[in-house]
Amino acid sequence: MFFAGLFAMYFTLRGEASAEWATYTPLLKVPLALLNTCVLVASSFTAQAGVLAAERYQRRRTGPLWNLRGWGMHEWFILTYIMGSLFITGQVFEYAGLVHEGLTISSSPYGSVFYLTTGFHGLHVIGGLIAMLFVLGRSFAAKKFGPVEATTAIVVSYYWHFVDVVWIALFLIIYGLK
């Protein structure tokens, strides 16, 4: 519901201040945002691979590191964490470029809605990263990897997939809708 409110704010301001969108959308780095989106979407696949390993109660890899089929939940969730961190890094890089161009949260209605929608999404991604650390820590601390640990991994993956789907909608609206 929170993101529905942000989408409503975006479309309302877009309708009321359409000249702002014509001025500021050319500043967006669509190739960077597309790359960032691909990283986040790919991280959903790695999170799901971690869930499949957790459902087999496979905490760690079996075999060499390069054998992805032998990876356990730890390896997949660590890779997902790295990819989520890369997504946040990409957002920070994009924000720095936009601020350098003069687009800030207080510079215009477009800046306000852009930073609020993408920033709150970024906070949700950070929350997902913290949850993954929690899952990994709980898994490392458990004497036996069982249903409780697997369920925790599954629940965190649902959240991660939700964050991914919200970003796809944000990307299509902010970067794709002209």
Describe the structure.
With 178 residues, the protein is mostly helical. The protein has six helices and no strands. The longest helix has 33 residues, at 109-141. The radius of gyration is 19 Å and the shape is elongated. It starts with a helix and ends with a helix. The mean pLDDT is 90. Pfam families: COX3 (PF00510).
Biggest β-sheet strands, sense, barrel: none
Count of strand segments = 0
Which stretches are poorly predicted, pLDDT < 50 over at least 5 residues?
none
Strand content: under 5%
Q: What top-tier CATH class fits best?
A: Mainly Alpha
Overall radius of gyration = 19 Å
- Shape label: elongated
Tally the structural domains.
1
Assign a percent range to the helix content: over 70%
Task: Furnish the topology, listing elements before pairings.
Elements: H1 2-16, H2 18-24, H3 30-55, H4 73-100, H5 109-141, H6 147-176
Helix pairs in contact: 1-5, 3-4, 3-6, 4-5, 5-6
What characteristics describe this protein?
178 residues; mainly alpha; Four Helix Bundle (Hemerythrin (Met), subunit A); 6 helices; 0% strand; Cyt_c/ubiquinol_Oxase_su3
Task: Summarize it.
It is found in: Cell membrane. The protein is 78% helix and 0% strand. The protein is mostly helical and 178 residues long.
